[in-house]
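=== RUN LOG ===
request id: a7f3
mode: sequence -> structure
chains: 1
length: 205
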Amino acid sequence: MAQPHSQPPSQASTEIVETGSTPFPPATASAGGPVETAPSAETELWAGRITWKHFAARIGWCAAGNVAFAVIVVMIAKRTDWLTAGRGWLIFLGALAVSGGFVGFRIGLVILSVRYRLTSQRLFIERGILSRTTDQTELIRVDDVRFHQSLWGRMLNVGTVTLLTTDATDREVVIAGIARPQEIVELVRARMRTLRGKTVYVENI
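=== RESULT ===
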């Protein structure tokens, strides 16, 4: 007796819309809000720390203070018999080691405790040595960017970059004491233009 042929199960047709090589869900947005296109891969553009040149003025004041102390020691040595040249040098070197070590230790702690990282979509500010806190800022929220250089900063090409954002919690995001601040400003501005070019605003009707 012939067995009835089984019918193959029907298969629903599927369609996948891809952008490049990665499929993305359709974009959605409420009226009046931005519609963002499919995000591209996030890449690191720059990473750095506060440069020691940012503390050049403090190092200069420390050096000037040690020179003044050496002059005082020499003047005292000329008026007393117990302060010989050898003792004077020992006192001066001891004071130089203490003051220089203290200033150098403080500067080293600041440099090691702050790290900046700029990607194609966000700015990360990491704070801490043993424990760590990371603040993130979306570049698409940045309204404007500016930088400041003091007289020393202009001579050493060091400055502070400030991002003005629409974030209610962080209106101003500061990248302090970095080398070549103009380059960072241009990087941020270029990414601002790129990210805003990928955003479509839907008007209320």
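=== NOTES ===
Residues 8-38, 200-205 have pLDDT under 50 and may be disordered.
Helices lie at 56-79, 85-113, 151-156, 181-197.
=== END ===
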